[in-house]
């Protein structure tokens, strides 16, 4: 500093201030000082200095480039279509997203096939586990009855019933037990770190695409360094990762099929009022096709696979037309809902999934009717000022299950007394609840907006594709209108 000051003063020239201003143009450039070679610099020092300068320039260019790219990405995202999928847990949000992928980004959908294969296998094992739990309860119950006596139902201790399970069922149960250990080991790797496995009985994974890599790593054969010099013997677990359920599942295939198809087992399920076929991720009717070594999932299998969403997942789909659409798929259980709010900003459309599950209760709170919970959630979404600019698209989902329930004679008025004596069929029941949703939207929206509603069964990929094409066009048109392109 001293040197610079003394050098900057030229004796005999005009005022200091003028001279200072003149020097400022040179000295105020911080680089000129840094770049100036130090006095007495050797050749070697000079080379080192120039090299580090070049390195600094390279890093600086890289930083500029990355800022530019982040800005581009930000602008791209700002202009892109953003869709939020909302609804209670198991309402069909992730399934709808898979349908979007299948319809508009099929290559991306199919690139995830290997990871979904493992999830489907885990879904099969999950159903077997639930089935074995029911059978264990039944064994325990019947063994507590006096020998040769009739058993009693779990729900009503006073109603006797015959013992239906035999020693062969016990043997099958033993033979199926290896399935449970492979499931425990694999799902432990997939579960988010902060989730208590005991409290979340269903398979769930870390948010983001990371789980697919974990699945692939956990189930792919050991690398050449591990298996060096050894060849894989087909039909053995050699050459397979021990976390890959394929071999064990294939070995258990016949037992799974015969257990599921056994009339005695079906009788126990029906006596205990257990509807495994209505549970998410149900594949036992397809176990014979899935529990084989060369199982390759169909598109429909992938769409039906169940994987609970934990947190909020961002997915971006490169649509066939080349635009990027962002989807936010949220976990729908009550504890997840506070995490939704940060994603409410700047979304073009909300697809709200509401199954007309009038006769079901929430898993996380069995005191609460599912349909009632959906209606409350809808009211909150309609009234939320942060969402007042977004289009709301209602999917009355799981229409296939509604039809099955009504066909089975389950009366809506038993669960929803206000339904009264109106006909207990799909058109009347649907219209009744659709009108309710419409009325709440009209009443609660901060400003008027159109009511879009579709009746869906999003496990039916063909029917869903036709609906999504219309939805996609509508969203795009409204988005383009908003950014003044049309
Ligand atoms: N039968 C039938 N099953 C459906 C339908 N829609 C979804 N499912 C099944 O219901 C289960 C739950 O669907 P998901 O899409 O995972 O539900 P979600 O809303 O993402 O649930 P969370 O991630 O827990 O919030 C899956 O096993 C689906 O296959 C439908 O329309 N009909
Ligand atoms: Mg989900």
UniProtKB/TrEMBL annotation:
Residues annotated to bind GTP: 397-400
Region (Disordered): 1-44, 141-167, 215-246
GO BP: adenylate cyclase-modulating G protein-coupled receptor signaling pathway
GO cellular component, one term: cytoplasm
Residues that, per the record, bind Mg(2+): 309
UniProt entry tagged with the keyword Oxidoreductase: no
Cross-referenced SUPFAM superfamilies: P-loop containing nucleoside triphosphate hydrolases, Transducin (alpha subunit), insertion domain
Ranges of Basic residues composition bias in the record: 1-10
Domain of life: Eukaryota
Bias-annotated ranges (Polar residues): 141-159
A single GO molecular function term of this UniProt record: GTPase activity
Alphabetized UniProt keyword annotations: GTP-binding, Magnesium, Metal-binding, Nucleotide-binding, Transducer
One Pfam family hit: G-alpha
UniProt name for this protein: G-alpha-domain-containing protein
Organism: Plicaturopsis crispa FD-325 SS-3
């Amino acid at each position: 500093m001293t040197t610079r000051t003394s050098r900057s003063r030229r004796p005999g020239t005009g005022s200091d201030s003028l001279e200072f201003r003149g020097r400022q143009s040179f000295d105020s450039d911080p680089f000129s000082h840094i770049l100036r070679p130090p006095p007495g610099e050797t050749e070697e020092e000079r080379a080192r200095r120039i090299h580090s300068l070049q390195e600094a320039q390279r890093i600086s260019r890289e930083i500029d480039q990355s800022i530019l790219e982040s800005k581009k990405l930000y602008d791209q995202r700002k202009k892109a279509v953003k869709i939020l999928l909302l609804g209670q847990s198991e309402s069909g949000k992730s399934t709808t997203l898979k349908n979007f992928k299948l319809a508009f980004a099929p290559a991306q959908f199919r690139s995830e096939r290997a990871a979904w294969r493992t999830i489907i296998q885990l879904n099969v094992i999950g159903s077997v586990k639930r089935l074995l739990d029911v059978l264990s309860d039944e064994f325990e119950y019947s063994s507590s009855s006096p020998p040769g006596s009739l058993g009693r139902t779990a729900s009503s201790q006073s109603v006797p019933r015959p013992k239906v399970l035999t020693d062969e069922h016990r043997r099958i149960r033993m033979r199926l037990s290896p399935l449970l250990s492979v499931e425990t080991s694999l799902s432990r790797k997939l579960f988010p770190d902060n989730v208590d496995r005991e409290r979340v009985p269903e398979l769930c994974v870390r948010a983001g695409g990371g789980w697919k890599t974990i699945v692939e790593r956990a189930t792919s054969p050991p690398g050449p360094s591990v298996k060096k010099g050894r060849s894989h013997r087909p039909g053995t677990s050699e050459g397979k990762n021990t976390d890959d359920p394929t071999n064990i599942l294939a070995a258990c295939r016949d037992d799974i099929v015969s257990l599921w198809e056994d009339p005695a087992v079906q009788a126990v399920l029906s006596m205990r009022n257990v509807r495994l076929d209505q549970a998410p991720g149900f594949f036992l009717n397809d176990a014979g096709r899935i529990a084989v070594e060369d199982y390759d999932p169909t598109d429909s299998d992938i769409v039906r696979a169940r994987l609970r969403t934990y947190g909020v997942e961002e997915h971006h789909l490169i649509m066939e037309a080349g635009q990027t659409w962002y989807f936010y798929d949220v976990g729908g259980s009550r504890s997840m809902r506070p995490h939704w709010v940060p994603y409410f900003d700047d979304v073009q459309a909300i697809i709200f999934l509401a199954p007309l599950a009038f006769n079901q209760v929430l898993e996380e709170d069995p005191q609460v009717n599912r349909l009632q919970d959906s209606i409350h959630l809808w009211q909150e979404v309609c009234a939320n000022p942060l969402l007042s600019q977004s289009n709301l698209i209602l999917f009355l989902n799981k229409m296939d299950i509604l039809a099955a329930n009504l066909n089975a004679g389950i009366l809506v008025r038993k669960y929803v007394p206000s339904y009264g004596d109106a006909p207990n069929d799909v058109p009347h029941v649907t219209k009744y609840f659709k009108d309710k949703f419409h009325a709440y939207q009209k009443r609660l929206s901060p400003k008027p907006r159109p009511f879009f509603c579709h009746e869906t069964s999003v496990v039916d990929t063909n029917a869903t594709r036709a609906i999504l094409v219309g939805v996609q066009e509508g969203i795009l048109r409204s988005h383009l209108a908003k950014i003044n392109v049309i």
